[in-house]
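Fold it.
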Amino acid sequence: MPGAGKSTVARVAQSMGFEIINMGDAVREEARRQNLELSDRNLGNIMLSLRKKYGQSAVAELCADRIRNSKSSYFVIDGIRSTHEIDVFKKLGNVVVLSIQASPSTRFSFLSSRKRKDAPMNEKSFDARDSRELKVGIGEAIALADFVIVNNGITVAELKKKAGDFLNRAKVEKQ
């Protein structure tokens, strides 16, 4: 779910040589193409309209060419929202799904402190965002994850350590 700590884990992965594919970047790029403000509402609407127009895996398909054209052997996909998207990535190679989980209060705190234009300003907008994400299918993707890191009551350093340990194992298992 948004705000659980995925971007922190992605930064750890990047420092370990993984190429990061941020699915939200594809949505933000589309918003810029449409000359729209990068607000939560606009980004959410674009995410939903892409899926409605092109199918549930539309955002993953936007990211797939970047993977196909890369020379990297290892990728972290930041922001998977459904099993449909996971299926797109499975066609490109070996996929291991890591879920970063945190309580709603922890996630709201993380998102609010970001000060990004798309961050929820209050609990009502936070709940609406969660509801939108769940409707897309993120709950099923989380439930079917191969591994889970729980990011409640731990420090950023502890999250980074857990992520590094997982990523090292993932690299070894792929070889």
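The two ends are 30 Å apart (CA to CA).
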